Amino acid sequence: MKTLFTLLSLCFAVSMAAAELRIAVVDLDRVFKEYYKSRIAEEFLTQQAEAARIYMGQMSTQLESLRAEARRLGTNALNPGLSDSARKKAADDADEAMAKVKAKETEITLYSNERRRELLRLEQAKREEIITDIRNEVKRRANIGNFAFVLDSSGKSANNLPVVLIHPQKYDISDAVIRELNRSAAKPVTPESKK
User: What's residue 160's pLDDT?
Assistant: First the structure.
């Protein structure tokens, strides 16, 4: 009888604690995509990648020009119609041109690797800044709503299945988080707002 009483008391205590335990959900994937700073960061990174692509194209054009010059000089070095001294000069010029080709190839490789690292670093820094903003707003919302836990409804398990299968819509704070994060976005100036 004492064990039954203890078990009933334990069940009652757990049910009371569960009744006080509030859980909210947030679709972090949606919040991240709809946050205005995400779009700004994406545009910035796209511009940086495009600038790098254009510069790489210019360097590739220079490389092709250097290769063509090296081939022309190499062909002259083998031309039997030229004197020995002219062929020797053409061979020396071809060697010098090939050195320029190798230097340009090295420059392109170094630039490409450095730019890729820089773009990844920029992307990570922007992402961390955005995630910090989102996390701070979710924490603030959790405190306001007295939620003990906030789960990410966009999260997937190792089997690529949703972690949160069902939840009452009233506990989804995604819209409120998005609204608050975007509240500080610059408002466009309209003729009515100038008055």
Answer: 84
